[in-house]
Amino acid sequence: MKTTILLLLATAAVGGIVGLLLGYYLRKLIARGQVGSAEIKAEKILTEAKNKGQEYLVKIKERAIGIIDDAKKEEVSRRKEIQNIQKRLEKREGVFDQKLLEFQDKQHKLLEKATRLEEVKKEIQTLREQEMEKLQEISKLSPEGAKKELLDLVAKDSEEELVARRQKLEKQNSEELDKQAREILLPVIERMAGSVVAETSTTSVSLPNDEMKGRIIGKEGRNIKVIEQLTGTEILIDETPEMITISSFSPIRRQLAKRALDKLIADGRIQPARIEEIINNVKKELAIEITKAGEDALYKLGVTGLDQKLVQIVGRLKFRTSYGQNILLHSIEVANLSAMLAEELGADVTICKKGGLLHDVGKAMDQDIQGGHPEIGYNILKKFNIPEDIAYIALAHHEDRPKTLEALIVKVADAISGARPGARKDTFEQYIKRLEELEGIATSFSGVEKAYAIQAGREVRIFVKPDEIDDYSCHDLAKNIANQIESDLQYPGEIKVSVIRERRVIEYAK
How far apart are CA 444 and CA 336, in angstroms? Predict the structure, then answer.
């Protein structure tokens, strides 16, 4: 049994060894087969790669040969083109050389002609000098003297003709301009053809009796001192029966004092406390009335957008007069006239209307602020941010030549309003003073013999010395005198300047 087991164990061991040997051998055989197969595949791939490489080399060589052939063909073509260009350049160079030779030839000929011209010019100059010398010897005059004498003769012969032509042209232009102006102004004036009467600023107060003067003065002058102090006016009490006079440079202050006195006289209680109470009430009433007057003026004209304080300044014009003309009514009229003229002339109606209303706004403050009313008005309007084209009208309505059409229209409307019959009036002293100033300006010019202001100062007639002033110079003299009057005098309407030149020869038959 043991022997059998041992045999079996030995047999199993031998079988295992043999199995291992067989497995090893089989594995080796399989590995050899796989290696051989990989080598075969590698050789095949290498062979195919060599074949493809040779094909690619052949194609690349063929393409390179084609590129070389194309390059050779292009080189041949470019060489031919270069040869053609070179031939054309050689041809043009030959033509240019020929033209250059022709130009040099012409230049040479021109130089010869210029030289000849210079010689001829010198010969002409020499001949002219010789002729001038001969003429001077004959006439015994220098060139300047001969020229002066010739001009004097021409001027003398042509003087009457020039004067006649000038008069004719001025007459034609004046007639044409007058006709056009009438066509524009007449319809406008007809639309505003309301009657105008000058106002007077009343500065006197009527009293029921002379006893009232004593009550107004009060004990030791207490009442009158309070009135003068609170109103800023001066109360003049003289021997005029039942009348006292109020004096002040400010029309509003005069109006304040007059209304307060009227109420005190009607009330009968005249003492300092009552005076102060009534004056305060009158101030409030005046302030309300001033504001309402400004608002009414704006409402009538359809003007909006003004600051309330500026409206109050406009309302102050109700108590301001110029030559007896109420400035607020004058401003409203100028605004209407300016708007109508702007419609006729194609200007800005809004600017003209506002400019016409505000052109004299400086007169509301000219008693309180130093300076002329155009400058004061301009500064007031700029302070309230009024546009420059409207503010400029206040400054320019007294200028000779305003820069804008709207300013010129307002200037014309201002003149129309002031020149209406009855719109303005002068005191006797102002009237006499204006006549004297008119005659003084006229006689201040050299050559004027006499001057007379006639037709209530609407015309000044000037007689000149005929030996010193000729007919041609009379026109310049008239214009100069008119310009001087415009710059130096203030007057309503216009003044006609007539210059008269006459020569009288008197002889007696005996």
Answer: 40
In one-letter notation, the amino acid at residue 429 is E
Torsional sign, CA 350, 351, 354, 356: negative
CA distance 19 to 173: 150
Q: What is the pTM (predicted TM-score) of this model?
A: 0.52
CB of 357 within 8 A of CB of 301?
A: yes
Q: For residue 363, give the DSSP letter.
A: G
Residue 185 placed within a domain: no
Query: Per-residue pLDDT tens for 104-125?
Result: 888 888 888 888 888 888 888 8
CB within 8 A of 495, min separation 6: which ones? 438, 457, 458, 459, 460, 482, 485, 489
Residue 185 has pLDDT above 60, yes or no: no
- Per DSSP, 371 falls in state S
End-to-end CA distance of the chain: 220
Q: What tokens were used for 389?
A: 């084209």
* Residue corresponding to tokens 């409307």: 413
Q: Is 63 exposed, middle or buried (0-12, 13-18, 19+ CB in 10 A)?
A: exposed
Run of H or E including 325:
strand 325-326
pLDDT single digits (tens) 288-342: 988 998 899 888 888 888 888 998 988 888 888 776 778 888 889 899 888 888 8
Indicate the average pLDDT of the chain. Answer: 80
Question: Same domain, yes or no, for 409 and 471?
Answer: no
- CATH code for position 221: 1.10.3210
What Cα–Cα distance (Å) separates residue 461 from each residue in 109, 341, 435, 456, 473? 75, 33, 12, 12, 16
**Which residue intervals of 140-191 are DSSP H helices?**
143-191
Phi, psi of 168, rounded to the nearest 5 degrees: -65, -45
Nearest to 451 by CA among 496, 505, 506, 504: 496
Nearest to 314 by CA among 394, 229, 228, 212: 394
Domain with 301, as residue range(s), is: 204-419
End position of a domain, from candidates 398, 419, 440: 419
Looking at residue 190, its pLDDT comes to 54
